[in-house]
Every structure is written in C-alpha cells, then in structure tokens.
Design goal:
There is one protein chain. By secondary structure, the protein is an alpha/beta fold. The chain has a single domain, classed as TIM Barrel (Alpha-Beta Barrel), CATH 3.20.20.140. The chain is built from 12 helices and 9 strands. Strands 1, 2, 3, 4, 5 and 6 form a 6-stranded parallel beta sheet that branches. Strands 7-8-9 form a 3-stranded parallel beta sheet, with helices on both faces. It is globular, with a radius of gyration of 18 Å. The two termini are 32 Å apart. It binds zinc ion. The site of zinc ion has 4 residues, from loops.
C-alpha cells in the first residue's frame, strides 16, 4: 500500500448489507467489496452510495434512503476496529490514517427527498456528503440522461436550483452522474462549489448516455470538479465486455482532456454483476493506478485527493 489512501467514490454495497444480510468481514458472496479486499487494495475511503430504486415512489423513497444510511452507521457500529463513518474529509483522513475504513455517505436519486428539500436536513444529520440529483428516472425538477419522456423537464428547473442551493447550505455536494447534458450545464452555471460525477466514463471512448463528452469533462475541469471513473462494463465498451485496458483508455482520455485534477475513481462495485477482467473487485484498483504510470503526486490526486478536494469544497 502507498503512503496515501485510495478513495472509491461510489459503491452499491450497502444494499447487499441491508437487503441480503451481507457483512463485510465475512466476504460478501458474489460481492466485489469487503474489508479484507478493501485493505488489500489500499481503499481506505469509500463512498457508500445509498441508491433508492424508483420502485419506492411516490412516498417510500425517503424512508428507504434513511434505512440504507442507517445501515452504514450500523455496519460501522458492528465493526469499530475496521470502519468508521466520516462526516468531513479531515475525519476521513484521520480514520484512514488509523488503518480503518472511512465510510462516506451518498444518496443516489433526488426522488429520495420526495419533492421536499427540508428532508435534506435529515440526510445532512446522518452525514450525507453528496446526492446524485437524478438516477435513470426524470424528476419533476431535474432531467436525467435517459431518453426524454412526456412531462420531463428540460435540465434543472427553478425548483431544482433551490434544491441544489439547499444542498450547498447543508454541505451536500451535487453529483451529476446520470444527469442530462442540460442538467449538467445548468448546475455548472450555479454559484455553488464544484460538482462531481461520482461514477461516469468518457463518451468519446464509448458513446453512452451515462458517459461524459470531452466538452463536459473540460467544463467540469475548468470548474474544479471531478469525475469518478466507473468500471461498469456496459458503459465502457459496446460489447459490454471490458478489461483493465478498456478502463485505462477511458482514464487516459479523461486525463488528456481535463488534466490530472479531474480524474478520480467511482467503481460502482456491487452495482455490477462482474467487474472488468483484471479489475474484478476493489482489491485490484492499484492495478489501474499502476497502469496509468503517473508520477507520485498525480497518482495521489487520482487515487483520492481530487475527490477529497471537491467534497471538502462543499463542507459547511
Ligand atoms: Zn448509478
């Protein structure tokens, strides 16, 4: 392990814990994330993305999000020697420095607030550090990257801006993965700290609505934001099959377009059936960092500092 922690900005593991009774010390059957493999990969800061399925619409989304967030706290309480929840990046560094896993909390899908920005306050109390504005469904106040449907808004509405402003007031960063290009551009124009895309890839390497164009990556870099590179094979290659070299191509494209301060890691492990070949689980992330052949300073930026810088910028 290097002298710095690896920060994976997006995993779906907590659903397996809450719904399937998985525990990270036993090794999760079919899972890609557990305490031993995290340690092996030097992943000492991990964002548990609490994804709320639209199946919980219209009025059980908030409750579901809170259950997932509480499940992360419960997991930390069960394993105090291996893991603790970090509400700030300084706390995350301290926890990582003590050899434990720093758990950072995210909510994926703005429908989790059920149209009530006041619900963000409970998220902030629970330690949420980012909210992915949309998942694959359009919200009444934000357009997702998926095909337009009747009644979907164009980009971020005036109400959507109020949501993002409330998030900024509470220290919850805006995550623009899954957002439509217009929603992305609308948030970039707002007077809030730099946004992140917690789990996206490059659409010039593989055209996919979930990926970012070179122009979007440039704009995000100019704004001081960060892209957590995702390992979802379906977003990386048209065959739906990917290996370490495929991921490397996306990483190199993002670096060449946006520079070394825009790239981070957002695997989406445990949200995918299988990881790319040679990058099958969280223990393998150092293989990607090595393959990038960056100098030590740039490797630190990509491994963790860039994501930390953006989340720090939102701290209140
Ligand atoms: Zn996602």
């Amino acid at each position: 392990m290097k002298g710095f922690p690896v920060f994976d900005g997006h995993v779906d593991t907590i659903q397996k814990v809450l719904d399937d009774g998985a525990d990270l010390d036993a090794g999760v059957p079919g899972g890609q994330v557990d305490f031993d493999r995290l340690e092996e990969g030097g992943v000492r800061i991990l964002c548990f993305a609490c994804w709320v399925s639209p199946d919980y619409l219209p009025d059980r989304c908030f409750e579901r999000a809170v259950s997932l967030l509480e499940a992360v706290h419960d997991l930390a309480a069960r394993h105090p020697r291996r893991m603790a929840v970090a509400k700030t990046m300084a706390e995350a560094e301290g926890i990582a420095g003590s050899g434990r896993l720093a758990a950072v909390l995210g909510v994926e899908g703005g429908h989790a607030i059920e149209g009530d920005p006041g619900k963000l306050e409970r998220f902030a109390e629970l330690g949420v550090r980012y909210m992915t504005l949309t998942w694959n469904n359009h919200l009444p106040w934000a357009e997702s990257c998926r095909e337009r449907t009747a009644g979907a808004p164009v980009g971020l509405t005036a109400f959507g801006r109020k949501v993002v402003e409330r998030m900024a007031g509470l220290g919850i960063a805006a995550d623009l993965s899954h957002a439509s290009p217009r929603t992305f551009a609308d948030v970039l124009e707002m007077d809030v700290p730099p946004p992140l895309c917690s789990h996206s890839a490059s659409s010039s390497v593989h055209e996919h609505c979930r990926n970012l164009s070179d122009g979007q990556i440039e704009a995000l870099a100019a704004r001081g934001g960060v892209v957590g590179l995702t390992f979802v094979p379906g977003f990386l290659a048209s065959s739906g099959k990917a290996d370490l070299r495929t991921v490397l191509r996306h990483a190199e494209r993002i670096l060449s377009v946006g520079g070394e301060r825009v790239l981070g890691i957002g695997s989406d492990f445990d949200g995918i059936e299988r990881g790319p070949e040679d990058l099958e689980d969280c223990s393998r992330i150092p293989c990607l960092l090595e393959a990038l052949r960056l100098g030590e300073e740039a490797e630190y930026l990509v491994a963790s500092r860039n994501l930390m810088r953006v989340l720090e910028a939102w701290e209140v």
